[in-house]
Amino acid sequence: MYKNYKSQFEVELKEIKDSGMWKDVGVLEGKQGTEVHMGGKILLNFCANNYLGLASSDELAQAAKEGIEKYGFGEASVRFIIGTSTIHKDLETEICKFFGTEDSITYTSCFDANTGLFETILKEGDAVFSDELNHASIIDGIRLCKAERFRYKNSDMADLEAQLKEASSRSEKPENPSADVKYRPRRMLIATDGVFSMDGITAKVKEICDLAEKYGALVMVDDSHASGVLGQHGRGSTEGLMDRVDILTSTFGKALGGAGGGFTTGRKEIIQVLHQRSRTTLFSNSLPPVIANTALYVLQNFDSKFDKNRKALGENTNYFRSAMEKLGFNLGGDGKHAITPVMLMEEKVAQDMAKALFAKGIYVRGFTYPVVPKGKARIRVQISAAHTKEQMEKCVQAFEEVGKEMGIIN
Predict the structure, then answer these.
(1) Which band of pLDDT confidence, cut at 50, 70 and 90, is reported for residue 175?
(2) pTM over 0.70
(3) Which of 75, 79, 135, 158 lies 20 to 30 angstroms, CA to CA, from 198?
(4) Domains of the chain: which residue ranges?
């Protein structure tokens, strides 16, 4: 039967290539760091989420070894069947200490945390309000639930309030409720990224909380790109606001380690419902103990050992943005975060520039549709605390040379 469909897929693949939206996947030869080996070349790596430089550190590798020696490779089952390990309970307790929350639950990824959230706590008749630039995992998670969906313009509080007002004006009780469905008052939930990953823009968490309190809504923040990076103490975009944020999801796959793993933390009752009903924990193996042990090490030692890396990250980010702006590049982001989009708009230009930079020893990625909107193509530069001044200078120099060759800057 497949021969009847093969030509259709071939046409689809050709259209992707012809549009300049084809995504080649690089193959790393060895470990990820500020330098990577790829295709027989040594490249300076500016496209990882390794914000604090921990992903390839020997210190975390040692914590991982200790974890695997103590807890083994895995538990070969879901936690409600085999039971949960002490390392998972210890990690969930430490997450609460770190963020100042009541309870936590770990997942194999933040994608799983998000896709397992909305259908668990929202039902038909409820309402969810999602920022238009939210991560794919939030979008997919919302698709799985039956709540009424509202999409507000990025960080536009007037638009969010208008939609909250509209939803609040409607009848909460369904006209013809099913006999087997017990009625409860309508829930409303505002969902946002803490930092929008393609744009480097920080969400207006305080203003969102103000509106949530005004209209009686819950607040959910995915802080994957902000945890360990933003805030006076590295607690993220919600630092100082966790008494007003009901649900926080995040990852250990970026600043807080770099391997993987996710979690949801917040109100005790919500977390307990997730433990009982969230499908991505009930039907998926536990977070591998090796990752859990390493994540626990990062949280326990963050203030004493790793928080200083945030200063280096800020200095590197400021250097790169300043140098690129002086050259005439159009940069996205609000300057608060290490995500620095070089806006090129045209898909083919972004891909061609990324290839030219690769040839000069700089590893970056061109981002095109559907990862970003059509006509908003860019190269997203990811700065790390581990980058040296010399590496930063080489990166800027390569951008200058390619930018002039392609006529992007003068």
Answers:
(1) low
(2) yes
(3) 158
(4) 19-48+308-405, 59-305
Is there a catalytic annotation at residue 17?
no
Are 356 and 406 in contact by the 8 Å Cβ rule? The answer is yes
pLDDT at residue number 183: 64
Homologous superfamily assigned to 19-48+308-405: Aspartate Aminotransferase, domain 1 (3.90.1150.10)
Q: Is 57 a catalytic residue?
A: no
**Is 59-305 in the same CATH topology as 19-48+308-405?**
no
Which stretches of 302-388 are DSSP H helices?
309-327, 347-359
The three-state secondary structure class of 332 is coil
For residues 30 and 55, is the Cβ–Cβ distance under 8 A?
no
Distance (Å, rounded) from C-alpha 138 to C-alpha 136? Answer: 5
**Is 225 an active-site residue?**
yes
- How far the first Cα of the chain sits from its last, in Å, is 55
**pLDDT of amino acid 38:** 86
Catalytic pick among 88, 254, 376, 387: 254
Residue 10: pLDDT above 80? yes
pLDDT at 21 (0 to 100): 72
Block residue for tokens 């496209």 = 47
How much is the average pLDDT of 244-270?
Answer: 97
* Residue 189 phi, psi (nearest 5): -135, 130
Residue 128 predicted with pLDDT over 80: yes
Mean pLDDT of the chain: 93
**Structure-token match 């005790």, residue found:** 268
Q: Please state which CATH class domain 59-305 belongs to.
A: alpha beta
Of the candidates 88, 135, 225, 376, the residue annotated as catalytic is 225
Pick the catalytic residue from 155, 197, 250, 286: 197
